[in-house]
Amino acid sequence: MAELLRAEGLVKRFDHFVAVNGVSLSFDAGVLTSIIGPNGAGKTTLINLLSGNLPCDAGRILFQGEEITHLPPHERVGKGISRSFQITTIFPQMTVFQNVQLPVLARLGRAGHPFARPDLDPEVRAEVEMLLREIGLEEIKGVRAGNLSHGDQRLLEIGMAIASRPRLCFLDEPCSGMNPAERGQVQDLIRRLAREWEVTFVIVEHDMDVVFTLSDHIIVMHQGAILTQGKPEEIREHAGVREIYLGEEIGT
Q1: Close Cβ partners of 149 (under 8 Å, ≥ 6 residues apart)
Q2: Which domain holds residue 180?
């Protein structure tokens, strides 16, 4: 499988605390990877480094063979990397349609035309409506995003993340706070997008049912470093992983 992204020796410090400590890893195209670990393990900080939301103190990052270590987030999006966040980051006062329209306009290079009516542009409208169909929100495209249920807001975030047509998409706790039906809907959407859109997803997730259901590969972080990685069945039986989770979440 083709390697999409490689990180070598990443380090991130906050004063005297080392949040990410010499992490090296790679993500291959078509392999759905989950990053797990207890609270404070460095998972979200690592994603922030890979997506450009935080600068590295050491190490380097390559995407499709090109070094991107010092590129800002918007340039990484242009290269084919996108993400969602642990805390919902939709625009609550805007409609569902308008939320998805923003990243579509950015991808088409039309975000800087303040007097244009992008909603009247047939190419933009067609693109946005197609994306809304994909995430199952087309019927409520005129609803204010802040009025959506938590599950629909998470679906909207995924729609915004894939609107840039990424090759690699990081999702930070996409199923957080969801009921079982909503979790199943999000998992089905991720599988379908991975298959039909050829998006390679990397997920940070605390729900072990989601992790072991979705993942082809699992990376386990502990105290800012990679403890181990492998296939789900290998991780499930790994003694060190069972120890840091106290056997509670991975023992079934």
Answers
A1: 182
A2: 3-244
